[in-house]
Design brief:
The chain is of the alpha+beta class and 224 residues long. The chain folds into two domains: 2-58, no CATH class; 94-222, Glucose Permease (Domain IIA) (Distorted Sandwich). It contains six helices and twelve strands. Strands 1, 4, 5, 6, 7, 8, 9, 10, 11 and 12 form a ten-stranded antiparallel beta sheet that branches. A hairpin with a 4-residue loop joins β7 (145-151) and β8 (156-166). The longest helix has 18 residues, at 65-82. It is elongated. The structure holds zinc ion. Zinc ion is lined by residues 96, 114, 116, 118, 196. Residues 96, 114, 116, 118, 196 line the site of zinc ion.
């Protein structure tokens, strides 16, 4: 009778199939008649079909969790399409992808882990920040050449390497599409001009292609 009590306590709610199955299994004719009376006394309740217990579960479509999640996903996708979380730092195709690749300067075939992507932009072309952020490093070393590192929100930071020149200083605030971090070059361990772009979450490298997917889509559809 817990089943019936729960219905009586919540007349506006839904009658789930399992309870009906139990009632039928018990052969409780009394309960069936209670339910039929209940059905008649509730003008707003859905029709109860005792032969098809599962069919009585008719939730309003907008209350379904799957629909809610789908609507949220569409809304977030539309928002990220208009305002991508990460922008391409240079306007050129990728020449070397994330993770495994052949070492560029090795005569033997040697696999190495590539913590970023290489963008085949022409020497001297502008390098933009991938997202709004704060320059935390602007320096030079043997591996990266001239490089800039930018801290973003939510634990992300990005790295731009092999630059010909650096046009920002540590502590600068940078905005994608507005601030120029530097120019593409081939300083450090690079065989030719390109931008090495790395993206990190909590200092762990993440595949930039995945992060850039919304901007890629926007560039493909509306060209910017
Ligand atoms: Zn690289």
């Amino acid at each position: 009778m817990d089943f019936l009590n729960s219905i009586l306590a919540n007349p506006g709610l839904y009658v789930w199939g399992n309870g009906m199955k139990e009632a039928r299994a018990d052969g409780d004719a009394k309960l069936k008649s209670h339910l039929l009376q209940l059905e008649k006394s509730l003008p707003k309740a859905k029709q109860v079909d005792l032969e098809k217990p599962l069919s009585i579960v008719k939730r309003p479509w907008k209350n379904r969790l799957a629909i809610k999640l789908l609507l949220i996903a569409i809304f977030v996708s539309a928002l990220f399409f208009l305002f991508p979380p990460f922008y391409w730092p240079a306007n050129a195709p990728v020449s070397s992808g994330f993770l495994f690749r052949l070492a560029p300067d090795s005569r033997k075939l040697r696999l190495e882990i590539h913590h970023g992507i290489d963008i085949a932009a022409a020497k001297g072309s502008k390098v933009n920040s991938t997202a709004i952020g704060l320059v935390i490093e602007a320096g030079k070393n043997d591996e990266l050449g001239n490089y800039v590192s930018v801290q973003h929100l939510l634990g992300f930071h990005s790295l731009y390497a092999h630059l010909q020149e650096i046009d920002v200083a540590k502590g600068s605030i940078v905005i994608p599409g507005v601030s120029v971090l530097g120019r593409v070059g081939s300083t450090g361990r690079a065989t030719g001009p390109h931008l090495h772009f790395g993206l990190f979450f909590m200092n762990v490298p993440v595949p930039p292609g995945v992060a850039l997917v919304f901007h890629s889509l926007r560039k493909r559809i509306i060209g910017i």
